[in-house]
Design brief:
By secondary structure, this protein is an alpha+beta fold. Helix content is 55%, strand content 15%. It is built from six helices and three strands. Strands 2-1-3 form a three-stranded antiparallel β-sheet, with helices on one face. Residues 39-47 and 50-55 have low confidence and may be disordered. Belongs to the bacterial ribosomal protein bL12 family.
Length: 132
């Protein structure tokens, strides 16, 4: 490696993540290239702590999900109430409180398939639902 390249590498090591992102954007614009197709060349510019944290987040696949009822349109309230009761096995009074006090997590720690099924049932009834 030439001295010029070694000096550049040492300079790059001192960049913050924000500065590295700005550098990548500037290189993309200047040379009309796309760094995202380079097989992770942007990752090499990050400091080692950022790389290991990012790797840990991408390796772990989430297995448990929370079903959160975000919004209940007034005209769909009764239909959604019925689905909430069937999904949560709550009584009428408790289910009504859940529906009227959105956003609210209605089921916690569900496997992905069960969470998606509950979400689909609620959305079919007219609710706005997210999985966390």
């Amino acid at each position: 490696m030439t001295e010029k390249i070694s000096t550049l590498i040492e300079e790059l090591k001192t960049l913050t993540l924000l500065e590295a992102a700005e550098l990548v954007k500037s290189i993309e614009e200047t040379f009309d290239v796309d760094a995202s197709t380079g097989g992770g060349s942007g990752v090499m510019m990050m400091n080692p702590g950022a790389i290991s944290t990012e790797d840990n987040n991408t390796v772990e696949e989430k297995t448990e999900f929370d079903v959160s009822l975000e919004e209940v349109p007034k005209d769909k309230k009764i239909a959604i109430l019925k689905v909430v009761r069937s999904v949560t096995e709550l009584g009428l009074k408790e289910a009504k409180e859940v529906v009227e006090n959105t956003p609210k997590v209605i089921k916690e720690g569900l496997p992905k398939v069960a969470a998606e099924e509950a979400k689909k049932l609620l959305e079919d009834a007219g609710a706005v639902v997210i999985l966390k």
